[in-house]
Write a structure and sequence with these properties.
five-stranded antiparallel β-sheet, Cyt_c_assmbl_TM_dom, Immunoglobulin-like, single chain, cytochrome c-type biogenesis, alpha+beta, 696 residues, 4 domains, 22% strand, 23 helices, eight-stranded mixed β-sheet
């Protein structure tokens, strides 16, 4: 019994020595762990640092991207001959906030390190075990970034006989090995400066047994590639007949020369999960590839062009049932009701024009997609909805069409007659425009059969892509074509009457719902644009009200003046030349005390190069000319504390406001009273706070 008790104590002691337990730090838990419970002299073992950030917080890869800092690990031991290898970094992911792109881990990660245990170990170490100390530093970010550091210790028992006793963390090590990039010898990766642009680097990946459509590319060298440049692969044939994938990526703003070789990681996302391939990419003079349609390209989707076209055709028909297309389809149906009882050839003409508008718009869209693809951009269906200006214009169109249906625009010959009034009247131009508008509003929608068809189409040459887009257009136009080619169906529709006006007004609400959805998309780009758009709609409503009150000239003057004055101010020489960065002074407690003693207002910006939110605020807010003008008008001294490298003075300042990290924005008024601003800033918010705090 006593022997069993002693054995249990020994086992518990072994497990206790395996890890000292997790340490809780701001927004992250960090723990030093090992795979095996006991180590043998002369063996290679694995230890790891488990990093468990809170939900939506992330840590960084060895190349952090536009901002951030890589985790640093420094090991020491009581055994001088014990050697530690390099960190085995898991395959990273892209983490994008605003226009800042980082590389790292959005969630738990394990940084594994190999340990070579020497064969000859002293008797004392064999008895007491190996003592391993770790000094670790990291950066964990969400909206703010908080640097952390910790000291860890691990005492590992040694056994002269082989042991396969695993710790509770063994599965974590096994899982991590599956996402650590493995060296690949079967595939080749080579690169050179692109011939068409000195600011791009061309990468070619051997196409043997690979599907580059699922590959992302990361360079360990921070000075090589721009973090925001993601690969768009094209498959081509070299003069010797070999097949290669090719992608052009932008060089980093810190780029100065091409290395002869560089470490590259390819991330592969497929049904089996995430995998990584590590390359020692070699600089080479690349052959010019011929990009042509081939059976290989089509076989990537395991569908022929005909099957893809049929899928797109059915997907186009289903689009008519989507909320984004229904308002326009309803407008066209309204015009067909008015055609009831008229000549059949007239109905067919409207069907032809509607279909022509759809096909013509898709042809133009195909040209745009092909041009962007040739330029090396990442493209997709609905790509134009990534442009705030396009979203703004489309929102205006939806609101004005709804207003017309509700009776706001009834004057014949008005400027809105080109839009919704003509659509509801059903003339030739309206039929063509309604087809174009159907494509515009359909672009954000995706039906089940459309997804695979368009996904493959966007990787094909222009002719094949266009064939699939035309099939999509025919499916979209089919319901109206059926109605116009079989006039008997139109005759069965209800006759025009009082109900028609109610129906027309009811159609305004799907349009307004679409406008609200577009505003939601727009605010994700910039909330300030939403505000400006709403003010513009208010201006249009006010001017239209003046016109209905028989003041058309006054309405034109008010509209022109309201639009022109901000434009003239914006175009004035030097209107945007002043920036806060030009007048910033480095933070120092002494200078801050002097300014406060003189009753001067001060704005403190605590920032760091690795801080994601700091960089966004600098690009969006602190580079805004109106913010700079507001600082100048109020006589605010702008002080910047750079915490890129740990600074005790800045750390003490952060502690005063109970902030563990940056950004921190503090505004002092004339009496030295403080106001802490939010971590996410907007130009309007900063200007409002200055006016409120420093008002005399």
């Amino acid at each position: 019994m006593m022997r069993s008790f002693l054995a249990l104590l020994c086992l518990l002691s072994t497990w206790a020595h395996a890890t000292t337990g997790p340490q809780q730090h701001p927004h992250i838990e960090v723990e030093l762990i090992t795979e095996y419970a006991t180590w043998q002299p002369g063996s290679t073992q694995w230890i790891g640092v488990a990093m468990r950030p809170e939900h939506h917080w992330h840590t960084y890869w060895k190349n952090p991207g536009d901002s951030g800092l890589a985790t640093q690990l420094t090991f020491t031991s009581n055994e001088p001959e014990l050697s530690f290898g390099d960190i085995q970094w898991p395959t990273p992911e892209r983490i994008v906030v605003s226009d800042i792109t980082n590389f790292g881990y959005d969630g738990d990660s394990l940084l594994m390190v190999p340990v070579q245990v020497p064969l000859n170990i002293s008797e004392q170490t064999l008895r007491e075990g190996l003592t391993i100390q770790l000094s670790a530093s990291w950066l964990v970010c969400k909206e703010s970034c908080i640097p952390g550091n910790g000291e860890f210790e691990l005492v590992m028992p040694l056994a002269t006989a082989p042991s396969d006793e695993l710790t509770e963390f063994a599965n974590l090590f096994a899982t991590t090995r599956q996402v650590v990039p493995v060296n690949q010898t079967e595939l080749a990766l080579r690169y050179d400066l692109a011939l068409n642009d000195a600011n791009q680097i061309t990468f070619q990946l051997s196409a043997a047994g690979s599907d580059a459509a699922n590959y992302d590319l990361f360079a360990a060298d921070e000075t090589l590639l721009a973090a925001s440049s993601a690969p768009v692969w094209q498959k081509g044939t070299a003069p010797d007949g070999s097949r290669w994938w090719q992608a052009n990526l932008q060089t980093s703003e810190y780029f100065y020369q091409l290395p002869t070789s560089t470490d590259i990681v390819l991330r592969i996302d497929d049904v089996d999960g995430v995998k990584g391939i590590a390359f020692d990419a070699k600089q080479a003079t690349l052959p010019k590839l011929t990009f042509t349609a081939s059976s290989d390209t089509v076989s990537n989707s395991e569908h022929s062009i005909i099957v893809l076209a049929l899928m797109a055709f059915v997907g186009g028909m289903l689009l008519n049932l989507m909320p984004c297309v229904f308002p326009v389809l309803s407008l066209k149906a309204l015009s067909l009701v008015k055609l009831s009882g008229k000549e059949s050839h007239q109905a067919r003409r409207h069907g032809y024009l509607y279909a022509t508008g759809i096909l013509l718009s898709l042809f133009v869209l195909g040209l745009a997609l092909s041009g962007l693809k040739q330029a090396g951009n990442a493209i997709g269906w609905g790509f134009q909805l990534q442009d705030p200006w396009f979203l703004s214009i489309l929102t205006l169109v939806m609101v004005l069409m709804a207003a017309s249906l509700l009776g706001a625009f009834e004057v014949a010959g008005s400027w809105m007659s080109v839009g919704s009034e003509r659509l509801s009247k059903g003339d030739d131009t309206a039929s063509l425009l309604s087809g174009c508008l159907a494509v515009v509003v359909a672009s954000p929608c995706m039906t089940p059969l459309m997804a695979p068809a368009l996904g493959v189409a966007l990787t094909l040459p222009f002719v094949s892509m266009l064939f699939i887009l035309m099939a999509l257009g025919l499916g979209l136009a089919l319901p109206i074509l059926v109605l116009t080619f079989w006039p008997a169906l139109i005759s069965k529709m209800p006759k025009p009457g009082p109900w028609l006006e109610t129906f027309k007004q009811a159609l305004a609400f799907p349009l307004l719902l679409t406008a609200i959805w577009l505003l939601w998309l727009l605010q994700q780009h910039d909330p300030n644009i939403v505000l400006l758009l709403l003010l513009l709609l208010l201006l249009v409503a006010f001017c239209w009200w003046l016109k209905t009150r028989n003041y058309p000239r006054l309405a034109a003057i008010v509209f022109a003046a309201t639009i022109a004055v901000p434009g003239i101010w914006y175009l004035q020489p030097g209107a945007q030349e002043s920036r806060l960065a030009d007048v910033a002074t480095p933070y120092s407690p002494e200078q801050l005390a002097q300014l406060l003693a003189a009753n001067e207002p001060v704005f403190i910006n605590m920032t760091a190069d690795w801080c994601l939110t700091c960089k966004v605020n600098e690009r969006v807010t602190f580079s805004d000319a109106q913010v700079s003008e507001a600082f100048s008008q109020h006589g605010v001294h702008y002080m910047v504390g750079d915490w890129t490298h740990r600074d005790e003075q800045i750390s003490r300042y952060l502690d005063q406001f109970q902030h563990a990290g940056v950004p921190l924005y503090v505004l002092y008024n004339h009496e030295g009273q403080t106001q802490v601003l939010p971590q996410l800033l907007t130009p309007a918010g900063v200007i409002e706070q200055l006016d409120k705090t420093l008002a005399n």
